[in-house]
Input
Amino acid sequence: MPSIEEKLAKSLTAESTDLIPYLPYLLQDLWELGSSPNDMIHLISENIDVNETTRVLDLACGKGAVSIHIAEKFGCRVKGIDIMSDFIEVARQKSREYGVQSLCEYLTGDINESVIFEKNHDIVILGAVGDVLGNQLETLVKLSATIKREGYVLLDDGYARSQSEKPYLTKEKWLEVIRQSGFELVADQSVSDAELSSVLDEQMECLARRTSELMDSYPEKAGLFEQYLKSQMSECAELENDILGVTMLLKKVK
Ligand SMILES: C[S@@+](CC[C@H](N)C(=O)[O-])C[C@H]1O[C@@H](n2cnc3c(N)ncnc32)[C@H](O)[C@@H]1O
Output
């Protein structure tokens, strides 16, 4: 069974846990680490009646890009939790920059523990986090425990374009898992190919520059950094060819 560190590394497309100490440096130019705040906001605006009493939980929130935009747009309270303390520090700074610090709470922690004691939220977000909470069914069951009856989950994951892209599920298989875990799919929003490729190009450019700086500073670890860049490239190829990146809005019905 993979350890918390192995899953953390994988959630940020690193193959080795040896890379974890270097991730804040490598990702310093990026605020958004996975999910699109615009897609999440669009799904909320179209489907949920949000006001200042709404409580939003952002699990594995990274640097808070999604939850800060949500607090800014809807004036609701958000709580973000991430295991990387450097990311939480950036999230706190950004919440001050955007003038929403009184609405935002950011904490360092392991979301495997948060899902046990966090309760009664109206919306829980899990954006581009992979299998940190287990497989798809286990993940939805754990998320369900953190929200009220008739609460919502915003999940950024992917639909496999064919049955063979395991561990990804096709949309058909996702619908089965969603039903089994007591949810219904309210809406989903996929990333357009043009938008995806421009975001990925921009991210790859930043990562390539930071990787090469680290190779200069730590030549003895060049192999580790080179491998990271390769993993990033193969994830981009996967996202462009085998998997359709999608944000799902689910409503708890049981
Ligand atoms: C690809 S990033 C997505 C971040 C954010 N949700 C977003 O979309 O911008 C994955 C995040 O999962 C976090 N993570 C991985 N394992 C975790 C754990 N066990 N507990 C809390 N956070 C975790 C990482 O630190 C990282 O910030």
User: Anything to note?
Assistant: The longest strand covers residues 147-160.
